[in-house]
What we know:
The chain is of the alpha/beta class. The protein is built from 10 helices and 11 strands.
Amino acid sequence: MLIIDGKKVAAELRQKVRNDVDAIVREHGRAPHLAVILVGDDPASQIYVRYKEKACDEVGIVSRIWRLDGSTTQCALEKHLAELCESDDIDGILLQLPLPRGLDANRCLAMIDPRKDVDGFHPENVGRLSIGLPGLKPCTPYGVMKLLEYYGLSPAGKQAVVVGRSNIVGKPMAMLLSAQTPFGNATVTVCHSRTPDLGAICRQADLIVPAIGKAKLITRDMVKPGAVIVDVGMNRLPDGKLCGDVDYDNVLDVVSAITPVPGGVGPMTIATLMANTVEAFRWRRERPLCPVD
Ligand code: NAP
């Protein structure tokens, strides 16, 4: 049984990004620049932003965090985004979600220049992913694919079940796993809160990717012997510990490979954000008219 080591794979990816950044500095005289916008004082968002800032420092990407007051208006936020889109010095823009009540996240995301959209949430990048064109991919599902690839766990020809259909994880995850790419070609079922008998569907799966946000919802009886589980869920237990969506301890002797939480998908999300920032830098320079073809 394999414990998939997200910390190790993420560290190797960050090292590769570090080398890419060094090469960019030599060629262009400056490092890629990531702009992060944090609106309001959501405690979890503040922690995530600090992680991102630290990761940027580590790989040599210049980051600047704009901390905007929770009372910022839609108009002011859009003006700020427009300025960042216009600025030639900014290579990547990340709008930390969720936004405070009253602000329209979809409208803001659609305003970001797709070439700077390091989260891969812009409708153009979502469309590109869905029709198999190159583009910036959402960091968490991209990180899951990189984990599978690192360990040679090819989804091709496998039955995969993605639990969750959010725009940031579940949907793009299903698209990547089923894509006609060397490391896609799975037959994917997407489940959600209205799926009857989730257990019966999961039991058919060679690969389960839960992205639910409910601690230990995927139990031993829902897992086929030998299945691979990549657990995206991150839940805080009453004792303060983090856990995934899978009943980890009780499935260990059933699965053939599994990610721990923490130390699985989480570190990959930040590492792929760094990789996306480098990709954004290159795309804007190398293909200025046709951004990500
Ligand atoms: P989300 O937007 O709340 O989506 C959760 C999905 O789970 C929804 O599609 C929901 O169905 C489905 N669901 C809820 N209860 C269910 C049930 N009982 N059975 C089956 N499906 C159920 O959450 P998200 O943003 O995708 O995040 C999901 C989890 O991943 C969270 O724990 C989050 O913290 C974690 N996460 C981790 C990372 C990382 O880097 N490790 C990154 C992003 C997110 P409906 O659509 O029907 O409501």
